[in-house]
Amino acid sequence: MDQFSSEIIRNSLYYGSEEMGIALRNSAYSPNIKERMDHSAALFDSEGKLLAQAEHIPVHLGSLPWGLKNTLDFMAKESIEIEDGSMMVLNNPYIAGTHLNDVTVVRPIFFDGKLVGFSANKAHHSDVGGKVPGSISSDAKSLYEEGLIMDPVFLIRGGEINKDVLSLFTINSRNPYERGGDLKAQIAANLTGEKRVKEIIEKYGINEFNEAKEDAFQYAERMTLSKIRKMTNGSYYAEDFLESPDGRDIRLKVRISITEKGINVNYTGTDKQVPSPLNAVLGVTISGVQFVLRSLFGEDVPVNYGTFRPVGIEAESGTLLNPVFPAPVSGGNVETSQRNADLLYLAMSKVLPDMVPAAAGGSMNNVMMGGIYRNKSWAFYETIGVGLGGRKGMDGVDGVHSNMTNTMNTPVEEIEKNLPLLVTRYEFRTNSGGKGEYRGGCGIIRSYKVGEGSVTVTVLSERGIHSPWGLAGGLPGKRTEVFVAKGKRKIRKGTKTTFELSEGEIFEIRTAGGGGYGDPSSSSQSAPKKDAEKGIYL
């Protein structure tokens, strides 16, 4: 096949996956998907090998291939046939990856009666039951406390929605109307992906399609190896700590070995799984490795099945980064994934010191709220941005989502229009980035006032004890802080907690700033003045 047609097919698949995400976002009901875009989409071949993925959520994307393989293995084990005109739905993290809120929908793609691929997407549903509104608690002892668990089951069969499955899923949520709408949006996304794959095959032919995908796999692998071979061979170590709800440090440890043949990531020395929601299933751990390496390889390396063939990952079963069912995992997807990214960057800073930035704010800063409003139950979920770390030649970015997340904050108007909440502060957290030749980015201050009734609030955050580290002499960023205002009293809360608020009371989170890079005394004379003019540093 000629090189030009092969490249057109590869790029068409990429844009097909991007269009899947647009279809999902545009037809979703919940603010978490429609406004924050907490979803991801990808296309696979008939063997479950990744063809293309959209530029969505890193922690979703790395786990989708792992989850699809597990889904196909589960179906084979349970004698469930892959049927034309069907879709499967699941959220069991030990099969799909991530956590229960992330619901995966898979569509087999048939052409002329033969299986040619799969379209799949994953979206974070704001509530799937469990002990707290939003489903992500700070103290669940098992997966059963975190919400409804679904192994792979037919959502669509013979072109018809399975109403029993849809009903079972929606009734187990505090806002069933949203759940049904978001699930149907996921269906629309997969149908969009299926349509684009079929159009490509119709235009170029199935043999050419298969030849182009193999060319793409081989090209991605060659590009990856070319990047690895520019690195200095050797073993590089790093250690970091996750903050347990009881204040104890949980150790994360990695050894990254680089040779001419590839990279091996070994997590020997990482602590055993814990009786709290900070465990991260293997799919999440894989996502962290792929994200960090992908960001260091550069944009010219395409992402498909071939990209990570030269990368090996070892994480012992029963540990924090590869727990055993039914260990709770809701926070592992959001918080442990961020600490894993920091850990990997710290190790790679010894290989590529001019490319790796200082630590970002290191948390997704999960905020879950819920209660009864206008005689209906409600649940709200969002994550709050942080400061990015400074890097050689560049200050850290202020107030954005970092590393394993790629979402946005919910618009204030969306919150105040639909929920009994008033957002009283939403601003950069001045002076929160670490100083350096290139300063760290500033975090965010976001405050919510209860307008009516009582509200259950859960916060699951990180960097409340350990500051985001600087590099090359840069200073650390400020730590995360959580407060509750009751009348004239301002009460400090932990970064992993659940509490009740009444009418007029305020919850405030101040997210961490990024670490600084380089000696602060080398900072440009004009930089402080420019920051002061922007109101970032006073």
Could you describe the 3D structure shown?
The protein has 538 residues and is α+β, with helices and mostly antiparallel strands. It folds into two domains: 3-220, no CATH class; 357-538, no CATH class. It has helices spanning 3-27, 31-34, 58-61, 63-77, 93-96, 163-171, 176-204, 206-228, 282-297, 330-348, 412-418, 527-534; strands at 39-45, 50-53, 87-90, 102-111, 114-124, 153-157, 160-161, 234-243, 249-259, 262-266, 311-314, 366-373, 376-383, 421-428, 444-450, 455-460, 481-486, 489-493, 496-501, 506-510. It is globular and about 70 Å long. The chain starts with a helix and ends with a helix. The mean pLDDT is 95.
N/C terminus separation: 61 Å
The proportion of residues in beta strands is: 15-25%
Describe the biggest sheet? 7 strands, antiparallel
- Radius of gyration based on Cα positions: 23 Å
Uncertain stretches of 5 or more adjacent residues: none
Shape: globular
Mean pLDDT: 95
Helix/strand-derived class?
Answer: alpha+beta
Fraction of residues in helices? Answer: 25-40%
Number of helices: 12
Integer count of domains: 2
User: How many beta strands in the DSSP annotation?
Assistant: 20
Strand order of the largest sheet: 2-1-5-4-3-6-7
